[in-house]
Structure formats: structure tokens, C-alpha cells
Amino acid sequence: MAKLIDARHIQVGYAQHPIINDLSITISRGQITTLIGPNGSGKSTLIRAMAKLLKIDQGVLTFDDQNLTTLSHKMLAKKLAVLPQTTQAKPELTVAELVTFGRLPYRKPLSGLTALDREKIDWALTKAHLTTLKDRPLTNLSGGQRQRAWIAMAIAQDTDTIILDEPTTYLDLPHQLEVMQLIQELNQSADRTIIMALHDLNHAARFSDNLIAIKDGALAASGTVNDVMTAENLRRIFNIDATLIAYEGRPLILTYETATPAEDVQ
Amino acid sequence: MKKQSFTVTLLGCVVLLIGLMAASLRWGADQTSLHNVWQAVTAAKTTNLDQQIVRTIRVPRVLGAALIGTALAGSGALMQSVTKNPLADSGLLGINAGAGFLLTICLAFFPHLTTLQTTAWAVVGAAMSAALIFAISTMQQTQLNPSTLVLAGIAISSLFTALSEGLALVGQLKQDLAFWYFSGMGAVSWSQLNHLGPWLLIGLIVALCLAPSLNIAYLSDNTAHSLGKSLPVLRALALVTVVILSGVSVALVGTITFVGLLVPHLARFLVGTNYRRVMPITLLLGASLTVAADLVARMVNPPQETPFGIIIALIGVPCFIYLARKEPHYAE
Q1: Interface-testing mutation among B81, B143, B222, with chain A (most A C-beta atoms within 10 A)
Q2: What's the start-to-end Cα distance of chain B, in Å?
Q3: Which positions, given as ranges, span the membrane (chain B) (predicted)?
């Protein structure tokens, strides 16, 4: 499998306080790779480092065989689209206007949209099932529709890779599913590499090819879903005793309890 | 909004401005005819007294009013977008007051400076206020609460206004300074326009060029970065433009508030929220508002002039309240 991202001994942090320390991972092209880990483990930090939104203090991260530090934001914007955990925009902005922002990396100063821009915008709206909502302001959308609008902006950016930081947070179950299915479709039918952080482990197991588990800013486990989602790993990473079953060839957490400390078990 | 109706609105604003400017040249303490106005503006040489009044007094006054209106309105639009705050305005945020303060210092201690020199100091004063605002707004890591920014601006504005007034009292400058507080366009002369007009024009061209980028100013810095755009650079460019536009305006006619706050709202009311459209309409309407207010100021009680700021407030406040009530988002 061709490597897309290769991080070697990277250290990332805010100011002098490293959040990720000596982390080495690889992410393959064309797959869905999901970062899992407890709150504060460093998932968002790693995502921001991969998107060049945070400086990598030590180590080297290569993206598409190029050192990330040598890629300008403008160049990177044509290779990588990022959907941050919290989004903000003018409330009156319409879906179509938001999606049009996705074409910014390709637009020349003071010029209008090209035919290609329009084609990509229409395509993104269609993919995200937003064509009928395109003239609605973002404030008038449901949470799920708004999240799809942001994903559509990332689609319109027409990059091979899309990074999403907890794309289903604050959404109810059907809207979570809607977003996850859209992401899966982008991977399968549009051949996008997807890198995301998720809290819902069952979603991570169901929709991902590979998992990378992070704990305390260090790599805790990585590999295929079946390799990583084991009862032993979940106890070690999340401190839970999970009851796992296999469903359609993938692990599924039926229920879980707080792990009992090993010394108490007689 | 359809492209066609935007073109109609744009043309409407141009016609409105030209009409107001023509009216402003024709009427005043001394009435004249449109024929004289036309002769004064187009003829190579004139000996007619009316035409000379128009040419040497009214033309610079009207041009000055128009330029200052565009400058203040343009500053307002720039500030409102880059601070993501619909209440931002160079007056409300204390940038005009900063410029006024350094002008007062110039008048009190260095009365013999040239126009260009005092203007440069006014721009420095505007920059000083802008730097204070910038420092306050970046002290917190998190997104600045819109009301915090406005409160900080009001505090800075009050501080510099108080300092200016104190200095005026101590330096016995009340007379000289009165015209800043009751600012009027009557003081604008050809020589001032020649010196300062180009700076305003450059600022306005930059404001127009920044307009398309202002649409992304409402995104988070990270989202803009991942689209290959840098919001800190955009904010810096906008702030420098605002400092030049408002510093020069204050040096010309004193501190005028409200134009920058009101006009962008009016423009958004007419053409929607896309700054590609909002900016040109804002500039045209800003000019129309100040030219109209200046005309009214001269007409209410000729040959006395009614303070310009009072007219702006009388026209502007009802408009603003109407718009604010109409737009649900301002409540946020």
C-alpha cells in the first residue's frame, strides 16, 4: 500500500508544552484511517499537525513524499482539505457560497469562477445531497445538513485527501450515519483518502480500513480495524472492559464497563 | 441576488451620488444656476463671481465630502468584516479618537506643521488606537466576544477624547478644536485635497481590491489556512487601510462617527452579504450620505452652518434602528 503520510518521531505542542511526543505513524493512500483515543490524548493535535495548522517541533512528517515544511499552505490546499472540529462562518452565508470557498486554492485574484469551478461546485453539492438546499443560509439548516455543507466545501476543494476532526460531534444518530455514509462514499466512489478522528468506536470500526490509537500523545496501537479493536487494547487505551462481538466481519462493542484494576481481580 | 439587479442598484447609487453632488454645487448660502455650475466645472477660465464661488469653494468641499464619506464607509466595511463584528467602525473602536488626539497635540505644541505633517501624525494616532485594539483582541486565545471588542473600543475612544479635551483646555485651543467636534466640510480647500486626496484614493482602491477576500474573513483562521489563505495577512492589510483612511479623514474634517457603522449595513440590506457587491455600494452610499448631510447642513439656516455631525445623526440613527430591527442576526 502506497504511503501518503509518514511521520517520524514527531513532537508537536502548543508553546513549550508538547502534546505529542516522539510519535511515528504511516497512513496509506486510498483508505479510511481513523484516529481514536480518549479526550485530550492528542488526536486533534495530530490532525492539526498533519494539516500544517500546528508547527512540528521535532521529527519529520512527509506528505505525498514531500516534507510538510516545504509545502506552502496554498500548495497543500490543492492536495488536502480539512474540516476542523468547530466551524464558523457568517450566519447569512448560503450553502452554495460556502461550497464556493472550496475553490479558493484554484482561483486567481479578482477573477470570477471558471467553468471547472462551477462543475466541481455542482458535483460537490450533488455528492453531499445538497442541490435542493444550495440557496439556503447556513443558519436555516439542521446540524446534519450544515455538517454536510462543510464536507461539500471540502469536496469542492477537489483534493485527493480529506481530513475530518470529529465530523459527527453534536449530531443525532441518523445525522451521524448520514455523515459517515457520505464519507464512506467519498472514499469508495470518488477514491478519496480519508483521515479522521472519531469518538464513536463502533463507527470507527464500521467505516474504517485502519485505526490509529493514541494515548497520552503517544502511539498506543495501529493497524487494521480487527487488529486494533481488541478487548485488551480497549482496556489499555480507554480503561474500559468492553464486550466485543463480530458483526459482518468487524468488531462491534455491545456494552462496556469501567475496567476493574487488575490487582482487585482475585 | 441576481447579477442584473445588482447592476441596477449600482447604477442607481452612481446616479444618486452625481445628483447629490450637482445639487450640492448649486445650492448653498449663495444660490446659483446649474448652468453656472456646469460652466464652473468645465470652462477653462471664468470671471463670473457665482462660477468662481462654485469653483474655488464648493467643488473642493463637495469632492472632499464625497471622498471622506467613501473613506469612512469603506473603513467601516473593512472593520466589520475582519473583526467579524457588525458594530465595528473606526469611530466606535476609537481609531478616529486616536487620530484626533495626536492632531490636538500637533495644534497645541507644533502649530506650524504643514498639512501633510499634521496628517501624518493623525495617521500615527489612528495606528496607535488600532494597535491597542489589536493587542486587546489578541490577548485572549479564544475568539473575542463582539461586545468585548466594542467595549474596549469605547474605552479607548473615551480616553483619547478626554485627553484631547484636557489638552485643548490647558492649551486654550477650544476655538481651534471646536471644528473637530462640530466637524464640517467647509474647511476643505483645494490645497488640502491635492495633498491628501491621493492617499484617500489609494486607500479606497485597496479597499476595493480586498473586497472579495473579505468574504472569507468570517471563517476561522484554520479553515482559511486550509484553503490556502491567511487571515492574519488579510487583517493586517485591512487594518493598515483603515488607519490611513480614517487618519486622513480626521485630519481633513475631524472625527465623524456613524457613517462607517451605518453605511455598510445599508449596503448589505440592499445587495446581500457578498462583499464583492457590498464594498462598491458602501463606497458610493458613503459618499452620498456625507454629500447630502453637508448640503443639508448648509441649507437649514443659511448662511449659518448646522453642525455636520448632527445632520448625520438625524439621518443615520432612524435608518440604523430600522435596519437593526429588520436584521435578526444582529441580535447574536
Answers
A1: B222
A2: 24
A3: 62-79, 91-113, 119-137, 149-171, 200-219, 239-266, 278-300, 306-324
CB atoms within 10 A of CB B307: 15
What is the value of ipTM here, to two decimals? 0.84
Q: Domain tally for chain B? A: 1
**Contact with chain A for residue B329, Cβ under 8 A:** yes
State the Cα–Cα distance between residues A118 and B271, nearest whole angstrom: 22
Beta strands A193-197 and A161-165: pairing type? Answer: parallel
Among all residues of chain A, which has the CA nearest to that of B330?
Answer: A91
User: Which residues lie below 8 Å from residue A147, measured CB to CB, with a gap of 6+?
Assistant: A167, A168, A171, A175, A179
For residue B18, is it within any domain?
Answer: no
pLDDT tens for B68-104 read 999 999 999 999 998 888 888 888 888 988 998 998 8
Residues in chain A, how many? 266
Determine the length of chain B.
332
The reported pTM is 0.84
Range(s) of the domain holding residue B71: 59-331
**B175 close contact with A: CB closer than 8 A:** no
Tell me which residue of A238, A232, A228 sits closest to A204, measured CA to CA.
Answer: A228
Pairs of CB atoms within 8 A across A/B:
71
- Output the domain CATH number for residue B213: 1.10.3470.10
Per the omega criterion (within 30 degrees of 0), is the bond before B303 cis? yes
Return the C-alpha cell found at B41: 466645472
Supply the pLDDT for residue B86.
Answer: 82
User: Using the beta-carbon criterion (under 8 Å), do B228 and A110 form an inter-chain contact?
Assistant: no
Question: Are B220 and A105 inside 8 Å of each other by CB?
Answer: no
Structural domain includes residue B79? yes
Cross-strand partners of A13: A18
Residues 213-242 of chain B with CB under 8 A from chain A are 215-216, 218-220, 222-223, 225-230
Distance in angstroms (rounded) separating the CA atoms of residues B221 and B231: 6
Minimum-distance CB partner of A81 among B219, B226, B272: B226
The pairing of beta strand A210-215 with beta strand A218-224 = antiparallel
The per-residue pLDDT for range B140-163, each reduced to its tens digit, is: 655 556 667 778 888 888 999 888
Q: CB neighbours (10 Å) of residue A169?
A: 15
CA A149 to chain centre: 16
- Can you read off the three cell numbers belonging to residue B307? 453642525
- Provide the chain A residues 8-47 that lie in CB contact (below 8 A) with chain B: none
Is residue B32 domain-resident? no
